[in-house]
Design goal:
mainly beta, Tachylectin-2, Chain A, four-stranded antiparallel beta sheet, 25 strands, 0% helix, 55% strand
Length: 333
């Protein structure tokens, strides 16, 4: 049976299930990779999901750290779900979806001075009541700060209109939040998940996973943001599945917009093939009317002459310098 322990280039935990990348960030001289994790199980849903944690300086060598966030409070006793991170006032703030014993989805925050030990805010959840008609789809907060204003983009749904929605909140301190409204909508979607939102050049990049009745997809959109509404200009579905989902974009200290996705191996569960890992990091660029994803410089030497990386049973092929990225798990005897 294949396991993740045969992978050389793709990050995976030494033990247990991994899914969505969370809180991707640069803090205290290192890149931080948080991720959805079930340390004692090789299949999702067997225990509450929590935040695993690893750091790297080159995306080739990783140090797995103690768990960053575990279930410890009434508001998150059934799960510390996906979210994002940002540095503010010398601390690393992480925002996450907190799930209580009734499976109600709320938004909570924790912070760290050293990037390793996190303290949950005493006033959690910072957003405890979400807009009506969501059917409890209200999760995966994406934090973004511009000109002193803090924004949270939260994945949700409008059940009455059969619309996936990204709900926008704003704050001056990242703790007290005011509802602004729907920043973007996805028609004929059951819900959306795992957004991330970053400044890129003169515009903004928004990444989101969208679930419809019979399919799911991941997309990255480049466009304009006026503080209330995001207006798409270029939409790309460059990452091709099914072995890819829940990509998250973050800003590196040198200005690069970096994307990392989850490679789940949907078709091979339970555990005949793998228990999940993270993709190679890609730098996102906007070129004309296209968004491209090409491996960041630190890992580019892994590419062969056909712009393909094969890591035991995972293949990532970058077509036309990342205009399309084909991610698949290879069948092996």
């Amino acid at each position: 049976m294949m396991t993740n322990h045969s992978l050389k280039y793709h990050f995976y935990p030494q033990k247990g299930w991994i899914n969505d990348p969370n809180g991707l960030s640069f803090f205290k001289g290192q890149y931080h990779l948080f991720y959805q994790h079930c340390p004692g199980f090789e299949y999702p849903g067997q225990a509450p999901h929590i935040w695993g944690h690893a750091v790297t300086q080159d995306f080739l060598h990783f140090e797995e750290l103690p768990l960053a966030l575990d279930v410890s409070e009434p508001y998150d006793c059934h799960g510390v779900w996906s979210g994002t991170a940002i540095e503010k006032d010398g601390k690393l703030y992480v925002f996450y979806a907190s799930i209580d014993k009734a499976d109600k989805q709320t938004v909570s925050v924790a912070f760290s001075e050293d990037g390793v030990n996190f303290t949950k805010y005493a006033g959690n959840p910072v957003i405890s009541n979400h807009p009506c008609n969501t059917n409890n789809n209200f999760r995966d907060p994406a934090i973004f700060i511009e000109e002193g204003i803090c924004y949270l983009v939260i994945a949700s749904a409008d059940a009455d209109r059969k619309m996936g929605t990204l709900v926008l909140y704003r704050s001056t301190d990242c703790l007290q939040w005011e509802l602004v409204g729907n920043m973007l909508e996805y028609p004929e979607a059951i819900f959306c998940e795992c957004p991330s939102f970053v400044k890129h050049g003169d515009g903004y990049l928004l990444a989101c996973s969208v679930c419809k009745e019979n399919r799911h997809y991941f997309e990255v959109v480049y466009g304009d943001f006026d503080g209330r509404v995001f207006t798409p200009k270029i939409t790309s579905h460059f990452q091709k599945g099914p072995d890819e989902y829940a990509g998250q974009v973050f800003s590196a200290p040198d200005g690069r917009s970096v994307l990392i996705s989850w490679i789940p191996g949907w078709a091979y569960q339970p555990k005949e093939k793998c228990i999940g890992c993270l993709s190679l990091p890609c730098e996102l660029t906007v070129e004309g009317d296209k968004i491209k994803a090409y491996p960041i410089a630190e890992v580019r030497h892994l590419l062969d002459k056909d712009d393909t990386v094969v890591d035991d049973y995972i293949r990532e092929k970058f077509v036309n310098k990342g205009e399309e990225v084909e991610i698949c798990l290879l069948q092996k005897p």
